[in-house]
Structure formats: structure tokens, C-alpha cells
Amino acid sequence: QVQLVEAGGGSVQAGGSLRLSCAIFGYTYSGYCMGWFRQAPGKEREGIAAVCLKERIGYYRDFVQGRFTVSQDNAKNTLELQMTSLKPEDTGMYYCAAAVGTGGWGLPQTYKYWGQGTQVTVSS
User: Which tens digit of pLDDT belongs to each residue from 5-26?
Assistant: First the structure.
């Protein structure tokens, strides 16, 4: 049974950093995308970063490019998201997700497995 467990959320001031980690159970990365999504109150869930392909290529939304870094570690069986220069608009519930087929990396319907989420709050 696949289980994804996020950790590392919290409250920080604008300009600060956080590192999110997603522990992966029952799933081995094989090239299908693993991604990070976030959902702010009253908004739809949006993809912000993902690792795809056997080369573990990182994909980013333009509003996090240069500030966030996504990585996947098979030895630790984790997916991580290093977030720097955080802004109040980065506030939301952050979810990791794992796909079992191909599709757009930023589309929720591409992913089959989801974690329960971890809250990130950035104050100005």
C-alpha cells in the first residue's frame, strides 16, 4: 500500500526558508513524476514543482523558479522541497504526490497517490 507522509511545514516570516520532506512508502520512483502541490484557502490546488523522468529532471512554476528546489532521493525514498525567499503568497497547504503514468506534471489528475499535506504560513 502506497503512503506519502509530508513533514517540515511551519510558520516563517517573509524572506525565510523551509524544507519540506515527503517520506514515501510502498512506491519506488521509476521516472513517473513526483510533485509538490499547494492549496491556498479558497483556491484550487496547483502544481508548483515536480521531478520527472529517470533523469530526475526538475520542473517549476514560474512563480517559484529560482526560489524553490525539488529533489528525489531513492536511497532515502523521499521527495523534498527546499523553499527560500518565501513570500506571503506562498502560504498554503503543501501536498506531495506520486504518479503511475504519464501526464502534465502540474496537473492534479496526473497523480494517483497523495499525502495528507503540511501547512506553510508566511507572514509579512
Answer: 999 999 999 999 999 999 999 9
